[in-house]
Amino acid sequence: MNKIYDALEICLQELENGADVKTVLARYPESADELRPILEASIAARKRTSAQIPSPEAVRRGRAKLLQRAAEMREAIIAPRKRIIPLFQRLAISFTLTATFLLSGTGLVGASSSALPGQNLYPVKRGWEDARLFFVFDKTAREILENKYESERLNEVSELLAEGRDEDIQFTGVFTTGNNIMYVSGVTVLFPANLQTPANGAAVIVTGRTNAQGFVEVRAVEMLPIGAMVPAGQPLEVETQTDASNYYEMKGILQSSSSGKVVINGQTFYLNNSVNADGLILGAQVEIKGYYDADGKFIVTEIKMEGPDSE
Amino acid sequence: MSIDDKHALEGLQKLDPQTIGAVYDQYFSEVYRYVLYRVGDQTLAEDIASDVFVRLLESAQSGRTPQTNLKGWLIGTASHVVADHFRKKYRHPEEEILDSMPDLAPGIAAEVDQREQNNVVNAAYAKLTDEQQQALALRFGQGYSLEETAAIMKKNVNAVKALQFRALAALQREIGEVNYE
Known about the structure:
The complex is a heterodimer.
Chain A: H1 2-16, H2 21-25, H3 32-47, H4 56-103, H5 107-112, H6 122-134, H7 139-163, E1 168-178, E2 181-184, E3 187-190, E4 203-210, E5 216-223, E6 237-243, E7 247-258, E8 261-264, E9 267-271, E10 285-292, E11 298-305
Parallel strand pairs in A: 3-5, 9-11
Antiparallel strand pairs in A: 1-2, 1-4, 2-3, 4-5, 6-7, 7-8, 7-10, 8-9, 10-11
Chain B: H1 5-13, H2 17-39, H3 42-61, H4 70-91, H5 109-126, H6 130-141, H7 146-153, H8 157-180
């Protein structure tokens, strides 16, 4: 059978080269009858190839279709990147806003940074503190931040006392006593009779209320474990008792000065009518002299800034 | 512009417009001619040929690069697309509208005769198996050698010789039957 296939192939090649059917069949007389219809069919098959060239319009259309598809595919490749970029951008924006709020002194949080208990922005301040703590996962860093906020609570209490405001507060510190006065990290506190006073040097959480007299009325106290990190504040340096009638000299940092009162190291002192606090610089180390009156208030009879020039 | 297959495939994978255009320009007419031979309809052949190049692009993108040469892949794919077309057509045959076609003017009688003859051959060709149609399209439509045809059809040369013999015999038989009908 292979012989007839080979004979057909030779005949087809000769036909393609211009020979006619009769001529090519003459080479294979024994197979002529079998090959003739096959060769005629091949001629018919070859004639089907009219209109072989596509129209220029069809070529252009097909080309445009292909390039359009390529463009779509390129776009499809880029699209996922585009989807990622906005997601990244959103995250970046969120982080930037968060960082801006947390780290900068501008905006709502910045404005709230100096807020005190009872003020409208105080919840914002505490909220952002909680938010910052939430995102700190390192244990040490978290403890440092917590201690910083506890110090802030202590400063808030000092400021409230300096302003003579009545506000509910809670802060932590070290309980100390001296000259029959109780302090928690430098803030004068008054324990009610029904509360047992902590041991000297104990770390405590104090819940109470500030008052215009310059101390905190303690409502509750919670003892913290020994070694707990609490802000120490700036205890007053009680240097000398000048005489037996409650005269003292003290040194500390002047934190505020207003209408007859000064706050030094978180403690409020009341200026004697003869004392003028004008010209004192906030933040400066000052030395005061005075006495405790019958209400327990420290009356300042002399105040001066300490420093190289004052020595 | 002629480009080698390796360079072309690299360009196709990168969706390089210049390479895509060059591949299209180089092979479109050949693919179109093959498809036209198979389907006998110019518009359909243009559509299918275009589709073959889109498939080439998608194939290159998905990493399924042609295993054979580019021309072989294009013709082979064209053959599959044509086969798909016929499968769909047989499942959902369109209505014949030949009876409603207007009568042709007497002046073009010769052209009509030629067209009728073509219709006979086309009808006979359409009755061949897909493989037989493919062999005739490659050998007589494209003018490919036995070796080229064998490579595209993934057969050996002797198998193609036998196939083309049977295909031509079947075509002749079908032409006779179509004429008889």
